[in-house]
Amino acid sequence: MITYTVIFEKGPSSWGAYVPDLPGVIATGISWEEVEVLIREAIEFHLEGLNEEGYPIPKPTSFAGVAEIHPAP
To answer: Taking the model in full, what pTM does it have?
Structure first.
């Protein structure tokens, strides 16, 4: 099993997702739940294509973090 970091972003009327370690692997949808399914499918499709063409599967190197900020009142 490989675990890739996925970044989810909420837009004004939809959701998007992308994988920093797999450039070009993106998904969009109406809900977060829809995008979660679509990005998994996009990752699997991308990796299958790399495998079929004989390219190595990129190892995950990205991770997401949180920066807690205390704004001035």
So the answer is: 0.88
Interatomic CA distance for residues 27 and 41, integer angstroms: 9
- Which residue's entry shows tokens 């990005």? 39
In a domain, 24, yes or no: yes
Rounded Cα–Cα distance for residues 69 and 65 (Å)? 13
* Chain Cα centroid distance, residue 9: 10
The boundaries of the domain holding residue 43 are 7-52
For Cα atoms 15, 62, 55, give the angle at the middle one, nearest 5 degrees.
Answer: 95
pLDDT in tens, 27-65: 999 999 999 999 999 999 999 999 999 999 999 999 999
